[in-house]
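Hi team, as promised in this morning's meeting, here are the two structures we talked about. I've kept the exact order from the run log so nobody has to guess. The first one is mostly here for context; it's the second one we should focus on when we meet again. Sequence first, then the predicted structure tokens.
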Amino acid sequence: MKPRRPAFRPLPWVLLTLLATGVYTRPALADPAKASALRVEAAQYEHGDGVDRDPEKAVQLYCEASRLGDVVAQYNLGWMYANGRGIARDDATAAWFFSMAAKQGDPLAERMLRQVGDPLAQAPACLFDTDGHDIVARAIPEHRKVMDLVRKLAPEYGVYPRLAMAIIRAESNFNPAAVSPKNAQGLMQLIPETAERFNVRKPFDPEQNIRGGLSYLRWLLAYFKGDVELVAAAYNAGEGAVNRYAGIPPYPETQGYVRRIREIFKREDHPFDPAITEPSPNLPKINKRRLM
């Protein structure tokens, strides 16, 4: 058994400097309070402290805290992978997270890194930038204006900017004047019924349209309990179609749409606010069908 760091050992905050390959980009300013809260919650799920033990949930929360720069979360996640703590042992992934902590000067992580070997060639999927910095960096100036507005507004709705950018790219390719054959309008292609549902009076106004689309995404995330594939399918085909087919509808357009969203967002789930709406009553049926 490899040495375990106490889950709540206090450490000074040090800004993370990580030379990552490919898509992983850390926010310019980390949020220590948020990272610490995520790490504490992760430890609860890892150890079953007041909640049912859920190693996969612990990994998700530790990874988000690691992305924000929490060195204890980085070490703890490396330890879980190095020891197969409720998950499959994976020394290369463990090495990646130990490397993150070691780059912040953590001596125990440095020692563990020597034991587990070389890290992955690319960042683990859970570390993909949810704020969309890499998308913005590659964007043309006209698109960047929209992306900056998304990054400003999305946190108000509890939506990762990267997911909203993926939706906008698939819907309108950042064209605020776009109109579909079904009369979906603006950046997030709101049909008149959806615009009315979320109080959008000027669908071609970029801010109003984005706010309406974010409101709908927030509702869908709660309705489908953060399942990104179902949310994307519902945004394209409607939540009724997802319920009716107990999953992604068999429409080529919708199936291609979901793939495009996943190619950009690259995460299976997304945090959600359960107070927004009751979950779909069809979720148990959908989940059961997935297991068949």
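And here is the second protein, the one for discussion:
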Amino acid sequence: MSQIVPAGLLFDYRICVPACSGPSRKKRGRLLSLDERGRLPFLALDDSVPNFSQVTLGWNRDGLAVLLAVRGRSAPVEPCPPDADACDGIELWIDTRPTGTVHRATAYCHRVLCVVCDENQDGEPSARSVPIAQQREIRQEMQTQRFLMRTHAVENGYDLEVWIPGSQLYGFREIDELRRLGFFCMVHDTELGRQPLTVTDDFPFSWNPSLWVHLELTDE
């Protein structure tokens, strides 16, 4: 018998994210140093979606760190325009005032696509803000050119590091007091498929914050 309710909807998931240092100032090498405890559990895996990536998070008062690790590819990533229908990378939804009961995105909700290899940026990674359908209000436009990003190729995949300055997330200024974020992500890979954090495209996660998980931001 098939499962009627997806695993990602069975509980109100709250995931602890440890603190991290800020991004490295060195021009080469790793941009981020993240604790393995910040690795997200991909809850949608119980629903037979592909399992080819890991996402690790970290935070501090200055911003949010994201590490995407994709493995299992047989070919290198090809450059693509960031507005293409299919690009290798990760799409993020972030809510700086999560309640779990709001079904339409507020001014505190953000959506951004992080691309591994942008042909318009000489093959470097890039990010762009994506509109959220039915969003009630937008009080601040994200300047994604202020993100710090690096890509590292490995034998059968890649790592994508993203540092999102808190100044680019409306409402993040008070994060040291609130210590909580709403979060969802979808990993896109042109060879391996799509890997959602919790629920699949059968549910309106792209514009409904009540389907996102809660991140509990800790000092440890």
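Starting points for discussion:
The longest helix spans residues 175-178.
The two ends are 42 Å apart (CA to CA).
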